[in-house]
Amino acid sequence: MITEKKKLYTKPWVRVMAGILAFVLVLTLMGIEWTWVDISADTDDAAQEYLAGETEYVNADELERLRQQILNLRQPILLEDYYGRAGTAIVAEDYDEALEYIDKCLELFTPEYGEELHTDLLVKRGCLLTMLNRGTEAVEPLEAALEIDPEQGEVYLVLAQIYSGTGQTGELTQALSRYVELEPGDGDMRLLLAQLQYEAENYTASSENVLRLLEDGGEESRELSELCAGLGLILTQTGDYARALKLLDAAVSMAAGTREEAGSGDQEGSADQSAENTAGELGLLHYYRGLCNLTVENYEAASEDYSRAIEEEILLQLSHYGRGVAEMMTQEPDIEQALNDLEYAADYRGEDVDTAVSDQARELLKLITEE
Hints:
20 helices
Protein backbone atom coordinates (compact mmCIF):
# COMPACT_ATOMS: atom_id res chain seq x y z
CA MET A 1 0.00 0.00 0.00
CA ILE A 2 2.84 2.41 0.84
CA THR A 3 4.40 1.69 -2.56
CA GLU A 4 1.17 2.72 -4.30
CA LYS A 5 1.08 5.94 -2.30
CA LYS A 6 4.58 6.89 -3.37
CA LYS A 7 3.78 6.10 -6.98
CA LEU A 8 0.84 8.49 -6.83
CA TYR A 9 3.07 11.21 -5.36
CA THR A 10 5.58 10.95 -8.20
CA LYS A 11 3.11 10.88 -11.09
CA PRO A 12 3.74 13.94 -13.36
CA TRP A 13 0.04 14.74 -13.85
CA VAL A 14 -0.40 15.12 -10.09
CA ARG A 15 2.22 17.86 -10.02
CA VAL A 16 0.62 19.57 -13.03
CA MET A 17 -2.78 19.49 -11.35
CA ALA A 18 -1.28 20.90 -8.16
CA GLY A 19 0.07 23.82 -10.13
CA ILE A 20 -3.33 24.41 -11.72
CA LEU A 21 -4.94 24.22 -8.29
CA ALA A 22 -2.68 26.91 -6.86
CA PHE A 23 -3.44 29.17 -9.82
CA VAL A 24 -7.20 28.66 -9.49
CA LEU A 25 -7.15 29.29 -5.74
CA VAL A 26 -5.13 32.49 -6.13
CA LEU A 27 -7.63 33.78 -8.71
CA THR A 28 -10.45 32.90 -6.33
CA LEU A 29 -8.76 34.71 -3.45
CA MET A 30 -8.50 37.87 -5.49
CA GLY A 31 -12.27 38.09 -5.41
CA ILE A 32 -12.53 37.77 -1.62
CA GLU A 33 -13.04 41.06 0.18
CA TRP A 34 -10.42 41.68 2.87
CA THR A 35 -11.43 43.87 5.78
CA TRP A 36 -8.97 46.70 6.42
CA VAL A 37 -8.78 49.24 9.19
CA ASP A 38 -8.57 52.98 8.56
CA ILE A 39 -5.14 54.43 8.98
CA SER A 40 -4.71 56.57 12.06
CA ALA A 41 -1.91 59.09 11.54
CA ASP A 42 -1.54 59.76 15.26
CA THR A 43 1.97 61.09 15.82
CA ASP A 44 0.96 62.71 19.14
CA ASP A 45 1.94 66.36 19.45
CA ALA A 46 5.53 66.18 18.27
CA ALA A 47 5.90 69.96 18.14
CA GLN A 48 4.86 70.36 21.77
CA GLU A 49 7.14 67.47 22.78
CA TYR A 50 10.11 69.22 21.20
CA LEU A 51 9.33 72.56 22.84
CA ALA A 52 8.97 70.90 26.25
CA GLY A 53 12.17 68.93 25.94
CA GLU A 54 14.41 71.55 24.33
CA THR A 55 13.49 74.68 26.30
CA GLU A 56 15.75 75.38 29.27
CA TYR A 57 13.12 77.29 31.24
CA VAL A 58 10.69 74.37 31.05
CA ASN A 59 13.22 72.04 32.68
CA ALA A 60 14.72 74.56 35.15
CA ASP A 61 14.27 74.39 38.92
CA GLU A 62 12.39 77.12 40.84
CA LEU A 63 15.54 79.14 41.66
CA GLU A 64 16.66 79.14 38.03
CA ARG A 65 13.20 80.18 36.89
CA LEU A 66 13.22 83.06 39.38
CA ARG A 67 16.61 84.16 38.08
CA GLN A 68 15.29 84.12 34.51
CA GLN A 69 12.22 86.13 35.48
CA ILE A 70 14.46 88.83 37.05
CA LEU A 71 16.59 88.95 33.91
CA ASN A 72 13.42 89.35 31.85
CA LEU A 73 12.64 92.59 33.72
CA ARG A 74 15.42 94.43 31.92
CA GLN A 75 15.05 95.78 28.41
CA PRO A 76 15.98 93.00 25.93
CA ILE A 77 19.06 93.78 23.88
CA LEU A 78 20.95 90.58 23.20
CA LEU A 79 19.86 87.38 21.50
CA GLU A 80 20.16 85.71 24.89
CA ASP A 81 17.56 88.12 26.32
CA TYR A 82 14.99 87.26 23.69
CA TYR A 83 15.81 83.55 23.95
CA GLY A 84 15.12 83.60 27.69
CA ARG A 85 11.81 85.41 27.16
CA ALA A 86 10.85 82.86 24.52
CA GLY A 87 11.35 80.07 27.06
CA THR A 88 9.14 81.84 29.60
CA ALA A 89 6.43 82.35 26.99
CA ILE A 90 6.56 78.69 25.96
CA VAL A 91 5.99 77.60 29.56
CA ALA A 92 3.02 79.96 29.74
CA GLU A 93 1.78 78.47 26.43
CA ASP A 94 1.78 81.95 24.91
CA TYR A 95 2.98 80.71 21.56
CA ASP A 96 2.33 83.96 19.68
CA GLU A 97 4.64 85.86 22.01
CA ALA A 98 7.19 83.04 22.01
CA LEU A 99 7.25 83.14 18.21
CA GLU A 100 7.93 86.88 18.24
CA TYR A 101 10.93 86.34 20.52
CA ILE A 102 12.28 83.45 18.44
CA ASP A 103 11.96 85.55 15.28
CA LYS A 104 13.92 88.30 17.03
CA CYS A 105 16.57 85.75 17.97
CA LEU A 106 16.89 84.75 14.32
CA GLU A 107 17.29 88.41 13.35
CA LEU A 108 20.13 88.80 15.85
CA PHE A 109 21.76 85.47 15.05
CA THR A 110 25.31 85.51 13.67
CA PRO A 111 27.54 82.56 12.73
CA GLU A 112 29.55 83.09 15.91
CA TYR A 113 26.68 81.61 17.93
CA GLY A 114 27.17 78.28 16.13
CA GLU A 115 25.06 75.92 14.05
CA GLU A 116 23.58 74.14 17.06
CA LEU A 117 21.79 77.28 18.25
CA HIS A 118 20.77 78.17 14.70
CA THR A 119 19.22 74.74 14.27
CA ASP A 120 17.43 74.99 17.60
CA LEU A 121 15.95 78.40 16.70
CA LEU A 122 14.71 77.15 13.33
CA VAL A 123 13.13 74.04 14.89
CA LYS A 124 11.52 76.08 17.66
CA ARG A 125 10.09 78.46 15.05
CA GLY A 126 8.67 75.50 13.12
CA CYS A 127 7.21 73.97 16.28
CA LEU A 128 5.62 77.24 17.40
CA LEU A 129 4.05 77.76 13.97
CA THR A 130 2.72 74.22 14.18
CA MET A 131 1.24 74.89 17.61
CA LEU A 132 -0.45 77.99 16.14
CA ASN A 133 -2.02 75.87 13.37
CA ARG A 134 0.26 77.41 10.76
CA GLY A 135 1.73 74.12 9.65
CA THR A 136 2.31 75.05 6.02
CA GLU A 137 4.53 77.95 7.17
CA ALA A 138 6.36 75.64 9.58
CA VAL A 139 7.74 73.38 6.87
CA GLU A 140 10.30 75.92 5.61
CA PRO A 141 12.19 76.52 8.90
CA LEU A 142 12.07 72.80 9.75
CA GLU A 143 13.56 71.83 6.38
CA ALA A 144 16.17 74.57 6.82
CA ALA A 145 17.11 73.01 10.17
CA LEU A 146 17.47 69.61 8.51
CA GLU A 147 19.80 71.08 5.89
CA ILE A 148 22.11 72.06 8.75
CA ASP A 149 21.71 68.80 10.67
CA PRO A 150 19.85 66.00 8.84
CA GLU A 151 20.15 63.58 11.76
CA GLN A 152 17.40 65.16 13.89
CA GLY A 153 14.76 62.48 14.18
CA GLU A 154 12.37 64.65 16.21
CA VAL A 155 12.21 67.20 13.37
CA TYR A 156 10.99 64.53 10.94
CA LEU A 157 8.35 63.65 13.50
CA VAL A 158 7.16 67.26 13.64
CA LEU A 159 7.00 67.28 9.83
CA ALA A 160 5.01 64.04 10.01
CA GLN A 161 2.58 65.77 12.38
CA ILE A 162 2.16 68.63 9.90
CA TYR A 163 1.64 66.37 6.89
CA SER A 164 -0.80 64.24 8.87
CA GLY A 165 -2.89 67.34 9.51
CA THR A 166 -2.79 68.48 5.88
CA GLY A 167 -3.52 65.02 4.49
CA GLN A 168 -0.25 64.82 2.50
CA THR A 169 0.22 61.08 2.84
CA GLY A 170 3.18 60.89 0.47
CA GLU A 171 5.14 63.49 2.42
CA LEU A 172 3.97 61.92 5.69
CA THR A 173 5.33 58.55 4.58
CA GLN A 174 8.68 60.08 3.59
CA ALA A 175 9.01 61.92 6.90
CA LEU A 176 8.16 58.80 8.91
CA SER A 177 10.55 56.68 6.83
CA ARG A 178 13.41 59.01 7.66
CA TYR A 179 12.38 59.17 11.31
CA VAL A 180 12.29 55.38 11.63
CA GLU A 181 15.74 55.18 10.04
CA LEU A 182 17.05 57.45 12.78
CA GLU A 183 14.90 55.95 15.57
CA PRO A 184 14.60 52.25 14.64
CA GLY A 185 13.29 51.28 18.07
CA ASP A 186 10.09 53.34 17.84
CA GLY A 187 7.65 50.52 17.14
CA ASP A 188 4.54 52.71 17.12
CA MET A 189 5.87 54.90 14.32
CA ARG A 190 7.15 51.88 12.39
CA LEU A 191 3.68 50.33 12.58
CA LEU A 192 2.11 53.57 11.34
CA LEU A 193 4.63 53.71 8.51
CA ALA A 194 3.82 50.11 7.54
CA GLN A 195 0.11 50.97 7.45
CA LEU A 196 0.73 53.98 5.23
CA GLN A 197 2.89 51.90 2.88
CA TYR A 198 0.20 49.23 2.74
CA GLU A 199 -2.42 51.82 1.86
CA ALA A 200 -0.13 53.13 -0.90
CA GLU A 201 0.22 49.53 -2.19
CA ASN A 202 3.95 49.52 -1.43
CA TYR A 203 3.64 46.01 -0.07
CA THR A 204 7.33 45.12 -0.14
CA ALA A 205 8.33 48.08 2.04
CA SER A 206 5.34 47.53 4.31
CA SER A 207 6.22 43.87 4.83
CA GLU A 208 9.85 44.78 5.62
CA ASN A 209 8.70 47.07 8.40
CA VAL A 210 6.21 44.53 9.75
CA LEU A 211 8.82 41.78 9.74
CA ARG A 212 11.21 44.13 11.57
CA LEU A 213 8.50 44.71 14.19
CA LEU A 214 8.09 40.97 14.60
CA GLU A 215 11.85 40.43 14.87
CA ASP A 216 12.08 43.16 17.51
CA GLY A 217 9.30 41.53 19.53
CA GLY A 218 6.81 44.30 18.79
CA GLU A 219 3.70 44.46 20.95
CA GLU A 220 0.82 42.48 19.49
CA SER A 221 -2.16 44.53 18.39
CA ARG A 222 -5.20 44.31 16.16
CA GLU A 223 -3.50 46.59 13.64
CA LEU A 224 -0.35 44.46 13.50
CA SER A 225 -2.36 41.26 13.23
CA GLU A 226 -4.41 42.60 10.31
CA LEU A 227 -1.29 43.89 8.58
CA CYS A 228 0.32 40.45 8.86
CA ALA A 229 -2.79 38.81 7.45
CA GLY A 230 -3.34 41.28 4.62
CA LEU A 231 0.30 41.33 3.58
CA GLY A 232 0.55 37.56 3.86
CA LEU A 233 -2.32 37.15 1.41
CA ILE A 234 -0.99 39.74 -1.04
CA LEU A 235 2.55 38.38 -1.00
CA THR A 236 1.16 34.91 -1.62
CA GLN A 237 -0.54 36.25 -4.73
CA THR A 238 2.65 37.96 -5.91
CA GLY A 239 4.78 34.87 -5.33
CA ASP A 240 6.82 36.09 -2.35
CA TYR A 241 6.06 32.91 -0.42
CA ALA A 242 8.91 33.03 2.11
CA ARG A 243 7.78 36.40 3.49
CA ALA A 244 4.14 35.47 3.15
CA LEU A 245 4.60 32.41 5.37
CA LYS A 246 6.38 34.42 8.08
CA LEU A 247 3.60 36.98 8.10
CA LEU A 248 0.82 34.40 8.09
CA ASP A 249 2.54 32.43 10.86
CA ALA A 250 2.51 35.61 12.97
CA ALA A 251 -1.10 36.37 12.07
CA VAL A 252 -2.22 32.87 13.03
CA SER A 253 -0.30 33.05 16.32
CA MET A 254 -1.83 36.42 17.25
CA ALA A 255 -5.33 35.35 16.23
CA ALA A 256 -5.00 32.16 18.30
CA GLY A 257 -3.99 34.23 21.32
CA THR A 258 -6.93 36.58 20.78
CA ARG A 259 -9.25 33.58 20.58
CA GLU A 260 -8.08 32.32 23.95
CA GLU A 261 -8.60 35.74 25.51
CA ALA A 262 -12.05 36.06 23.93
CA GLY A 263 -13.07 32.68 25.30
CA SER A 264 -12.20 33.70 28.84
CA GLY A 265 -14.19 36.96 28.91
CA ASP A 266 -16.13 38.08 31.97
CA GLN A 267 -19.54 38.20 30.29
CA GLU A 268 -20.52 34.83 28.92
CA GLY A 269 -22.68 36.06 26.04
CA SER A 270 -20.20 38.62 24.72
CA ALA A 271 -17.32 36.18 25.24
CA ASP A 272 -19.07 33.52 23.16
CA GLN A 273 -19.75 35.98 20.33
CA SER A 274 -16.20 37.31 20.41
CA ALA A 275 -14.76 33.80 20.42
CA GLU A 276 -16.97 32.89 17.46
CA ASN A 277 -15.80 35.91 15.45
CA THR A 278 -12.16 35.20 16.26
CA ALA A 279 -12.56 31.55 15.33
CA GLY A 280 -13.81 32.57 11.90
CA GLU A 281 -10.85 34.90 11.39
CA LEU A 282 -8.45 32.22 12.55
CA GLY A 283 -9.99 29.70 10.17
CA LEU A 284 -9.61 32.14 7.29
CA LEU A 285 -5.95 32.66 8.14
CA HIS A 286 -5.38 28.91 8.15
CA TYR A 287 -6.97 28.78 4.71
CA TYR A 288 -4.61 31.45 3.36
CA ARG A 289 -1.59 29.81 4.96
CA GLY A 290 -2.71 26.48 3.53
CA LEU A 291 -2.61 27.93 0.03
CA CYS A 292 0.85 29.36 0.67
CA ASN A 293 2.15 26.09 2.09
CA LEU A 294 0.67 24.19 -0.84
CA THR A 295 2.39 26.49 -3.32
CA VAL A 296 5.82 26.05 -1.72
CA GLU A 297 5.22 22.30 -1.50
CA ASN A 298 4.85 22.10 2.28
CA TYR A 299 2.10 19.56 1.72
CA GLU A 300 1.73 18.18 5.24
CA ALA A 301 1.49 21.69 6.69
CA ALA A 302 -0.97 22.69 3.96
CA SER A 303 -3.19 19.71 4.74
CA GLU A 304 -3.21 20.64 8.44
CA ASP A 305 -4.09 24.26 7.67
CA TYR A 306 -6.96 23.27 5.40
CA SER A 307 -8.24 20.88 8.07
CA ARG A 308 -8.38 23.78 10.55
CA ALA A 309 -10.22 25.90 8.00
CA ILE A 310 -12.73 23.09 7.47
CA GLU A 311 -13.26 22.77 11.22
CA GLU A 312 -14.26 26.45 11.28
CA GLU A 313 -16.41 25.97 8.13
CA ILE A 314 -14.37 28.48 6.13
CA LEU A 315 -14.62 28.42 2.31
CA LEU A 316 -15.61 24.77 2.47
CA GLN A 317 -15.36 23.97 -1.23
CA LEU A 318 -11.91 25.51 -1.61
CA SER A 319 -10.68 24.10 1.69
CA HIS A 320 -11.74 20.54 0.85
CA TYR A 321 -10.27 20.89 -2.62
CA GLY A 322 -6.98 22.22 -1.24
CA ARG A 323 -6.74 19.51 1.40
CA GLY A 324 -7.50 16.83 -1.17
CA VAL A 325 -4.63 17.84 -3.43
CA ALA A 326 -2.26 18.55 -0.54
CA GLU A 327 -2.97 15.12 0.95
CA MET A 328 -2.28 13.38 -2.37
CA MET A 329 1.08 15.13 -2.58
CA THR A 330 2.31 14.01 0.86
CA GLN A 331 4.83 11.19 1.10
CA GLU A 332 2.24 8.84 2.61
CA PRO A 333 -1.14 10.18 1.63
CA ASP A 334 -4.51 9.22 3.01
CA ILE A 335 -6.04 8.39 -0.36
CA GLU A 336 -9.53 7.86 1.03
CA GLN A 337 -9.59 11.30 2.61
CA ALA A 338 -8.15 12.91 -0.52
CA LEU A 339 -10.86 11.34 -2.70
CA ASN A 340 -13.60 12.33 -0.26
CA ASP A 341 -12.34 15.91 -0.24
CA LEU A 342 -12.24 16.10 -4.04
CA GLU A 343 -15.71 14.59 -4.33
CA TYR A 344 -16.99 17.16 -1.82
CA ALA A 345 -15.49 19.98 -3.89
CA ALA A 346 -16.86 18.57 -7.15
CA ASP A 347 -20.40 18.14 -5.80
CA TYR A 348 -20.51 21.32 -3.69
CA ARG A 349 -23.76 23.27 -4.05
CA GLY A 350 -23.35 26.10 -1.55
CA GLU A 351 -24.08 29.75 -2.34
CA ASP A 352 -20.33 30.40 -2.69
CA VAL A 353 -19.80 27.57 -5.19
CA ASP A 354 -17.00 28.16 -7.67
CA THR A 355 -17.69 26.23 -10.85
CA ALA A 356 -14.05 26.42 -11.95
CA VAL A 357 -13.01 24.63 -8.78
CA SER A 358 -15.82 22.08 -9.26
CA ASP A 359 -14.58 21.35 -12.78
CA GLN A 360 -10.98 21.01 -11.62
CA ALA A 361 -12.06 18.60 -8.87
CA ARG A 362 -13.97 16.43 -11.38
CA GLU A 363 -11.03 16.44 -13.75
CA LEU A 364 -8.65 15.39 -11.01
CA LEU A 365 -11.01 12.63 -9.81
CA LYS A 366 -11.26 11.37 -13.39
CA LEU A 367 -7.49 11.22 -13.73
CA ILE A 368 -7.14 9.37 -10.44
CA THR A 369 -9.83 6.77 -11.16
CA GLU A 370 -8.48 6.15 -14.64
CA GLU A 371 -5.14 5.26 -13.09
